[in-house]
Amino acid sequence: MIKLNNIIATYTTERGQVNAVDGLNLEFPSGKTIGIAGESGCGKSTLLKVVYGDLIYPLSLTSGNVEYGFTGDFGTEVTTKDIKDHWFKRISYIPQASMSSLNPVLRIRRQFVDFQGVDQDKEQILAEVREYVKSLDLPPEAIDAYPHQLSGGMRQRIMVAMGTFFKPDIILADEPTTALDVVVQKSILMLLMDIQEQMGNTILFVSHDMGVHYQLTHKMLIMYAAKAVEFGDSEAVFGEPLHPYTKMLTDSLPTIGDDHIREGVSGRPPSLWDDLVGCRFAARCPLATEICRQQEPELVEHKPGHFSACHHADQV
Amino acid sequence: MGLIQYISSRVGAYLIVLFVGITITFFLPRLMPSDPIEGYIAQMQNQAGQSMNPETIRELRASLRKLYGLEGTLIEQYVDYLERIILRFDFGPSLASYPRPVSEFIFNSLPWTLGLLGTSLVISWVIGNLIGLVAGFYHNSRWATFLETLGVILYPIPYYILALVLILLFAYIWPIFPLSTTIMPGDFSWEKINSIIYNSFLPALTLVLAGFGWNILGMKALSFANKEEGYVTFARLKGTPSRTIMFGYVFRNSILPQITALALSIGGIFNGALLTEILFSYPGLGLLMRTAIGSGDFNLLYGTIIMSIVSVATAALIIDLIYPLLDPRIRYR
């Protein structure tokens, strides 16, 4: 189980400080795929960075910490402070752009063994990598190639192979299929699902694509303007959403046979620079009343395991 | 396949550059309004203080034409010239020190220039790029700012100013190095090598200092930009040790444009070396060229010009051929 304890993540800019993730208290169960959705700038990627422990300037953690649910070498609980030591061993990361995430002048096999702590017996590891890569439907020779010799889909498979080779407990995937065409996209997603089924990792999956979320995830977290607005089992979140923002997002999904024009979510999210009072979604919300504009709703459990931050959750 | 194509295109370009260079060296002096033979004869008559009889002048003119390779039509001269230079590497006799061949002078001074230039070029490129890499990779640290400032200060100073300042400082005010180069003739021995290093130190220092400011700035900008690339970020997130990131990732990718820059800068550095040699009386091609101009020795002048074309083009070719070793995208297209 990954526990997020009151996370406030802050970017320091010349204009001042802005909280890109503003007070998140959540528990992600182990062995599940957790989808994170929301429009650009809502804090999805920042949340991933915080969970990964990649807190370098200008991003910093103003308060809170993450507990990862496993212990380190000395039997102590691993938290944000020491997660760095477990990078790619117990927590790994699959980046968005496979095109630019591989060093163009080094053979892929070299990039497989320059993780931290891999000094001993590179030949042995490479032999294992070859076996592993083969099990992911890639020719084992692929790791002898330079990145530019592989297709986009193969490169993304390599990224998946790197991210999963050490059988990490947690995998963070930041829009891992955005740059690929839909056919390759599907095969990469299937691959991730297979791997998760075999290894039982926890996957945090960020995507703009609600359709992908629906197919892939067990749990969904919907974020809006640096806040969590809804969290629950994917079926429940998609089937009976408890937040008007989620409802608007899922309503924009097309269904086969329905040829009505889909409505997007009109309006824009508020600027995080402003002093935000009340519900951050109120300005765009059809259900908004006076209380929404004055009092910020808490993320509360409305049904077992289904949380929502809305004063009118029962009316959605 | 891509590699063969790459090499053959570079070698082809090299041969074309040499041919064009040699051709221009042939035609350029022939476009000048003055005739070297008439000038020479007039000079002789002046010196003799009396006019020679026309028969002697005609004979003199004919033998001089033969000597200068000026017999026959322009095309015949051109073909003869190409044949002599390309097949026999023969630039004719020196006019000032007749009848010693020009090629002898060139082969005596070429090792000096190549040694000085090659060493200082490699040193300034290697040190400059390493400093630039560190300055770009740790761009937040005070040291990086200091190193970059060093580059900014050094790079706009012209060779000859730097050379004069160094001569003043280290050969006159604080005389630890010789004012001009004097090297004892004789066989190779430790003493001779020592004396060569001692005598070459100041000219080499000039070239290194003048060259490496630019390398620092170029490499600093490149490695700073490279640090933000996706693969560097990803390597950092992999937990790759920062030394490996600096050399295997940032350096290996930033050095590629710097190699091209090195090939391009060789011509300019050659010019600077000529000035440096003259200032330090260093017995290389530059000094030889100046002697040739001073004594009106056309054959020697054209010989040194062609030799410098050949050296610069060859150095650029070698660098071009090294490039695919470092960039697999050219090796495996």
Oligomer: heterodimer
CATH architecture of the domain at 97-168 and 180-200 in chain A: 3-Layer(aba) Sandwich
Distance between the termini of chain A: 30 Å
Radius of gyration of CA atoms of chain B, rounded to a whole number: 25 Å
Major pleated sheet of chain B? none
CATH topology of the largest domain in chain B: MetI-like fold
Explain what the structure shows:
The complex is a heterodimer of chains A (316) and B (333). Chain A has 316 residues and is of the alpha/beta class. Chain A has a domain at 97-168 and 180-200: Rossmann fold (3-Layer(aba) Sandwich), CATH 3.40.50. Chain A is 28% helix and 25% strand. Chain A contains ten helices and twelve strands. In chain A, the strands form two sheets. Chain A has an eight-stranded mixed beta sheet with strand order 6-7-8-3-9-10-12-11, with helices on both faces. In chain A, helix 5 packs parallel to helix 6. Chain A is globular, with a radius of gyration of 21 Å. The two termini of chain A are 30 Å apart. The mean pLDDT of chain A is 89. Chain B is mainly α and 333 residues long. Chain B has two domains: 2-88; 102-331, MetI-like (MetI-like fold), CATH 1.10.3720.10. Chain B is built from 13 helices and no strands. The termini of chain B are close together. The mean pLDDT of chain B is 85.
